[in-house]
């Protein structure tokens, strides 16, 4: 890992999104201060920032832990995700800036490259960034924090999606990349209905794959 406050912030985000840090895992403040060459104050400032963004939870007298994924949080995630993604898509069409469209296209190029190289970590992070940019395009201060919190769990729940284990999962990964391309075309064309339709297609694809993570097939017992 690199040293410095910015590096700590980016590294913790990456480790949480890619499930290298487990939900509910406690962070060792002393270890991080030594590892990044920082004093306690900047480390705690990073913790506060990440807690505000929904990545960490600061628990009095217990320390800092990765935001958990409980039955309640998963239920709420599946309940509201399509609604928030659809609202984000509509507003992205209405409000996007050329610089944001350029960033979206560049992110999609990296996502496509990761599909070809089967880089699971890059796939998860570039997919997350793609949808973050759509949130930035929406430019709504009420909606964006909700989207950001959703994307954290979406990335964590869906990490198996980026490690396809059979032909059907490979096909779904290719379809997800095609959806991204179609999002770009529809947003650029200011076609709000096309974006919303894509949101629900993309969500259904994600939902089916996230079920694999939540309810995997049981191991066969040897008798």
From TrEMBL:
Keywords: DNA-binding, Transcription, Transcription regulation
InterPro entries: GntR_C, TF_FadR/GntR_C, Tscrpt_reg_HTH_GntR, WH-like_DNA-bd_sf, WH_DNA-bd_sf
Keyword Oxidoreductase: no
Gene Ontology molecular functions: DNA binding; DNA-binding transcription factor activity
Domain HTH gntR-type: 2-69
PANTHER family, alphabetized: HTH-TYPE TRANSCRIPTIONAL REPRESSOR NANR (PTHR43537:SF53), TRANSCRIPTIONAL REGULATOR, GNTR FAMILY (PTHR43537)
Name used for this protein in its record: GntR family transcriptional regulator
Source organism: Pantoea coffeiphila
């Amino acid at each position: 890992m690199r040293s410095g406050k910015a590096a700590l912030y980016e590294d913790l985000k990456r480790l949480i999104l890619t499930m290298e840090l487990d939900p509910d895992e406690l962070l060792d403040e002393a270890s991080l201060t030594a590892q990044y060459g920082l004093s306690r104050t900047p480390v705690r400032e990073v913790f506060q920032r990440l807690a505000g963004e929904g990545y960490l939870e600061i628990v009095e007298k217990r320390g800092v832990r990765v935001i958990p994924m409980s039955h309640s949080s998963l239920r709420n995630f599946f309940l509201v995700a399509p609604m928030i993604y659809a609202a984000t898509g509509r507003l992205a069409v209405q409000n996007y800036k050329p610089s944001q469209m350029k960033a979206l296209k560049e992110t999609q190029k990296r996502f496509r490259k990761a599909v070809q190289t089967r880089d699971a970590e890059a796939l998860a992070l570039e997919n997350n960034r793609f949808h973050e940019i759509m949130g930035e395009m929406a430019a709504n201060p009420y909606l964006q924090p909700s989207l950001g919190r959703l994307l954290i769990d979406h990335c964590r729940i869906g990490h198996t999606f980026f490690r396809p284990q059979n032909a059907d999962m490979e096909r779904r990964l290719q379809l997800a990349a095609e959806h991204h391309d179609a999002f770009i075309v529809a947003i650029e064309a200011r076609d709000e209905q096309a974006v919303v339709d894509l949101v629900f297609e993309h969500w259904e694809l994600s939902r089916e794959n996230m079920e694999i993570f939540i309810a995997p097939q049981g191991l066969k017992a040897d008798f």
